[in-house]
Task: structure prediction
Amino acid sequence: MAAPILTAKTGVWVYVGGTLLPKDLVTVTDDTDTNPTLTFKTQPNFSTVGTVSVTVVATDKDGEKAEKAVSVEVKAQPGVWDNYNPNKPTPEQLKSSEEMSYVWRQKGMRK
Result:
């Protein structure tokens, strides 16, 4: 009887706030158990952009255990900041600006 053998998958990523299952991070083989149980050593936290190390634990039917640390890239949600420009006026500001231009034109002023 030998402990399960875990192999880390490469290129694993998740969006901020997303979730992954242990099987998304590793492949596992075992000489006595065709389906060892996979769990996280501690619940991963994918709340910020960056690289997170996540440890997966495999346990076979004989109680033999093995662990593997896997790097997971946490990416920003698409579209959230892609078009962000702090100097770009909001729709409310644009409406207000258009209204002021109209008032100025009506009074013979220049903008």
About this structure: The CA atoms of residues 100 and 111 lie 9 Å apart.
